[in-house]
Specification:
The protein has a single domain, classed as Spore Coat Polysaccharide Biosynthesis Protein SpsA, Chain A (Alpha-Beta Complex). α3 links the parallel β2 and β3. Strands 1, 2, 3, 4, 6, 7, 8, 9, 10, 11 and 12 form an 11-stranded mixed β-sheet that branches. Helices cover 28% and strands 27% of the residues.
């Protein structure tokens, strides 16, 4: 059985950071969050990484990230192009950005033909997540349904003190399988409680221990063909805003569950997620990395050959 691959969605890095050269280091020797994810993945057993990037950031990406990672692990690239569309469709006039995370994974068609884990480039997931993903994806599966998995985080471990976040709130059955994902686009920590709003006025409290998706997935290769099929439906839907709507992975997964084509094992972790959603978050991430180094989770210098 072929070993699973790690797919890292990095096409949005340039736009989120105002250019790749503005990416802030969080480690003592200039390491980025993505470095810690790759370190954890390689330690867990992953032997190949595929970066999904935009062609216009390729030069900077390789200079800042790719060239040093190529010394550590087998590295390939997939390119998320806005014009990567099904036959009969064209880019809507005025659309300037690609179509979201599911569209990003579609970029891997013909490049990734094995089971794979998929993560965001700028999220810190913790070492346990990669161990769980590798172990699950490496085991042979029997059954008629696509065997997917998802790392489930406690909501309280994924919020920021500095503003609102979007999270996929998950429903999980007694067997530990995902039954539904509901996207909440404005979740805020308010004192000791965590709440969400749909209209900016009315707030509903959420259970702090709610399981949330942080785009940390494990897929069998069939997901790519299903994304291609559902992308046609997405583009054909009259409710799709041609300029702003995005085709998200949780939507694809939720649809395949409803169609009884896939089952998603939720692999729980108590690790804390970290990310720089707001500039004030950076100090928290840096402090967390320092503590993890002190605890022996990471060496002080992550890559010895830098």
């Amino acid at each position: 059985m072929q070993k699973p691959t790690l797919v890292i969605m990095a096409a949005g890095l340039g736009s989120r950071y105002g250019g790749l050269k503005q990416i802030d280091p969080v480690g003592p020797f200039g390491e980025l969050i993505i470095d810690y994810s790759i370190y954890d993945a390689v330690k867990a057993g992953f032997e190949k990484v595929v970066f999904i990037i935009k062609e216009e950031i390729e030069k900077d990406f390789k200079e800042i990230i790719g060239n040093r990672i190529e010394k550590i692990v087998k590295t390939e690239y997939a390119y998320q192009r806005i014009d990567n569309l099904p036959a009969g469709f064209s880019v809507p006039a005025g659309r300037t950005k690609p179509f979201g995370t599911a569209h990003a994974i579609l970029s891997c068609k013909g490049i990734v033909n094995e089971s794979f884990a998929a993560i965001n480039a700028d999220d810190y997931y913790g070492a346990e997540a990669f161990r769980l993903l590798f172990d699950y994806l490496s085991r042979p599966k029997k059954g008629e349904l696509y065997p997917f998995c998802m790392i489930g985080y406690r909501l309280s471990n994924t919020v920021t003190d500095y503003g609102h976040v979007a999270r996929g709130i998950c429903s999980v059955d007694k067997g530990g399988h995902l039954t539904r994902i509901v996207e909440r686009t404005r979740i805020e920590k308010r004192g000791e409680s965590i709440r969400f709003t749909e209209n900016g006025t009315d707030w509903t409290e959420l259970d702090k221990d709610s399981i949330v998706s942080m785009n940390c997935w494990g897929f069998s290769p069939e997901i790519i063909g299903e994304i291609e099929r559902l992308f046609i439906d997405f583009l054909s839907d009259e409710n799709t805003d041609p300029l702003k709507s995005e085709f998200y992975l949780p939507f694809v997964v939720d649809t395949l569950i409803k169609e009884k084509k896939a089952e998603v094992k939720v692999l729980g972790t108590t690790d804390k997620w970290y990310g720089v959603t707001y500039k004030e978050d950076k100090a928290t991430v840096v402090s967390a990395i320092v503590k993890l180094i002190e605890e022996g989770i990471y060496p002080e210098r992550l890559w010895k050959n830098d």
